Amino acid sequence: MKKIILALAVAAVATGARAEVPLVLPMAASPEEVGLSSAQLKKLEAVTRQHIDDGLVPGAVMLVARRGKVAWLSVQGKRDPAGGDAMKTDSIFRIYSMTKPIVSIAVMQMVEEGRLQVSDPVAKYLPEIGKMKVGSEVTGPDGRPVLHFADPERPMTVQDLLRHTSGLTYGGRGTSLVNQSYVAAKIGDRSMSNEEFVAKLSTLALKFSPGTRWEYGVSTDVLGRLVEVVDGKKLGDALAARVFQPLGMVDSGFQVPVAKVMRAAQPGLRPGGLPMTPRFKVDDGAKYESGGGGLTSTMDDYLRFTAALANGGALQGKRIIGKKTLEFMTADHTLTRPGRPPGLGFGLGFEVRTRTGDSALPGTVGEYGWAGNAGTLFWIDPKEQLIALYMVQVSDPDRIALRNRFRSMVQAAIID
């Protein structure tokens, strides 16, 4: 253990990072040892420093691993701009939708246990979901649009929830009457329990018939409640037993304990003094354990999760998912369904790359990953044996451009 910590400290000095805790993967002697360019990664560091100076991001923890080793680790900026605390490798981030792959793994563990099938109707476990109608906008007597309700063409399945073809949406991602009804009902309010969330959601309309298209929404939040029903415990307890404890993810959960709150990364102000997008409080005691976006985690914890996936489902002798199950999850399950951008499909909990040239971002066919609303990002490239992690807490207008730049610059670092 002392040798590992020493190696981390030496590598940290080389990259400007401070390694407060040993990472789960060994450090490469240099990026070149695993076929990456030090010069290109230094450019990425310089660009990130400029983003910090420009006020686009308070601080960042960035990591690239390849061929089973951490090739590059960079820690920059402030953990808490208000207090001036420096960012550290053990800072705790709101990972938002990077929660989804973890919950999806838990669901597929249950498939492996024979407790459910992806083809099962969701109503088998959550009967109220089976009562939902499809809401289509028609012109009312007064000339204004109203919702017409009809039975879906087929029942919503567990697979629909996993791949976002359920007919569910996010209220804020559109202006349709169905979207407006989500906003009015305060779907996802943190004062609700997961059970109360599903009960309220089931009184609303589906945006389309399950299986007919792809639309990002609260599908994985419903999966979170499904996990609770099948496993007989709260979602956080189920994830702890199924994923966090086996992998040694000691800093991941839906609430940050009092003793760790001072490690939580916080958003700051955007250029011009404008406030960043409000972020949920990490220690508010909320009942809602959002399967779609409620977890907090650290660089090392999420590295443990992604390293297990990159290794075929196991890490340090602890298997969280079978190899063939993982292959099934990271295949494209949206082949003929509109809604996905060109070159990018969606599997069971992950975005997957289907073609290289159609997307505006470089990458490899077969890579998979996802991102979070506060700017966090990860992807795994099986062909290149690469894991990339970008941990920040930034604003909605800036997050996509920041992580796209990170993705493009990391891809440019691959030289062998």
What does this structure look like?
This protein has 416 residues and is α+β, with helices and mostly antiparallel strands. The chain has a domain at 113-215. The chain is 31% helix and 15% strand. It has eleven helices and 14 strands. The protein has helices spanning 2-15, 38-54, 99-112, 158-163, 177-184, 194-201, 219-231, 235-247, 299-310, 323-329, 396-412; strands spanning 59-66, 69-80, 85-86, 93-94, 134-139, 145-150, 296-297, 314-315, 318-319, 344-346, 351-353, 368-371, 377-381, 386-391. β10 and β11 (351-353) form a beta hairpin. α3 packs across α7 and α3 (99-112) packs across α8 (235-247). The longest helix is centred in the N-terminal third of the chain and has 17 residues, at 38-54. The radius of gyration is 21 Å and the shape is globular. The two termini are 30 Å apart.
How are the elements arranged and paired?
Layout: H1 2-15, H2 38-54, E1 59-66, E2 69-80, E3 85-86, E4 93-94, H3 99-112, E5 134-139, E6 145-150, H4 158-163, H5 177-184, H6 194-201, H7 219-231, H8 235-247, E7 296-297, H9 299-310, E8 314-315, E9 318-319, H10 323-329, E10 344-346, E11 351-353, E12 368-371, E13 377-381, E14 386-391, H11 396-412
Antiparallel strand pairs: 1-2, 1-14, 2-3, 4-7, 5-6, 8-9, 10-11, 11-12, 12-13, 13-14
- Helix proportion of residues, in percent? 25-40%
**Rg to the nearest angstrom?**
21 Å
- How many distinct helices? 11
List the secondary-structure elements in sequence, H or E.
HHEEEEHEEHHHHHEHEEHEEEEEH
Runs in which pLDDT lies below 50 for 5 or more consecutive residues are 1-16
Strand order of the largest sheet: 3-2-1-14-13-12-11-10
Q: Give the strand tally.
A: 14
The N- and C-terminal alpha carbons lie at a distance of: 30 Å
The percentage of residues in β strands lies in 15-25%
Which class do the helix and strand fractions yield?
alpha+beta
What's the overall geometry?
globular
Main β-sheet, in a few words? 8 strands, antiparallel
Global mean pLDDT: 93
